Amino acid sequence: MKTNAVRMLDSKKIAYEILSYSHDDGKIDGVSVAGKIGRDPKTVFKTLVTTGNSKQNYVFIVPVEEELDLKKAAAAAGEKKVEMLPSKDIQKTTGYIRGGCSPVGMKKLFPTFIDETAAHLEKIVVSAGKIGLQIEVKPGDLIDAVNASFADLSK
User: Fold this and answer.
1) Which residue from 26, 50, 104, 141 has the fewest beta carbons nearer than 10 Å?
2) In sequence order, which residues have a C-beta less than 8 Å from that of residue 13 and are 6 or more positions away?
3) How far apart are CA 63 and CA 83, in angstroms?
4) For each of the chain's 155 residues, which pLDDT tens digit applies?
5) 151/17 Cα distance (integer angstroms)
6) Which residues lie across from 63 on neighbouring strands?
7) Phi then psi for 8, rounded to 5 degrees?
8) What DSSP string describes 66-113?
9) What pTM, to 2 d.p., does this model score?
């Protein structure tokens, strides 16, 4: 099944691998997903959407075992403060649902930052835009796909 994320990677001729998993058990947290797809949790990243004081939205991609440091995120974005986007606003803002939010193919291209730990990995895994689907991609290719930059983001 082609999601917006997959279509966008195809249009940019970026190589990726689709990894699927069952979510019948309701376990869609990143660490559970890493286990289901047989990948080290250090290589599986979650996509978090925030809003800054300026009302601008930002996307932060951090390892599933880590927590986004909002102070570091604000500094990376050049904001005084950023807050997590309320769950009820995720679909309206990104086009994706909570738990299936991909950094690729959102309704709008928001300023995007990837935790600097990804820079040292051969490939990372992010959501493909649907619960049950993940994309494995080279970090540099993901940077190209969403015009992202690396930053120190984790607590």
Assistant:
1) 26
2) none
3) 18
4) 689 999 999 999 999 999 999 998 988 889 999 999 999 999 999 999 999 999 999 999 999 999 999 999 999 999 999 999 999 999 999 999 988 999 999 999 999 999 999 999 999 999 999 999 999 999 999 999 999 999 999 99
5) 25
6) 45
7) -65, -45
8) S-B-HHHHHHHHT-S-EEEPPGGGHHHHHSS-TT---SSS-SS---EE
9) 0.95
Dist. CA 51–CA 125, nearest whole Å: 24
| Structure tokens that stand for 12 in this block | 């940019």
Q: How do 82-84 and 45-52 pair as beta strands?
A: antiparallel
- Positive or negative, the CA dihedral 84, 36, 135, 142 is positive
- For residue 53 the two structure tokens come to 């004081």
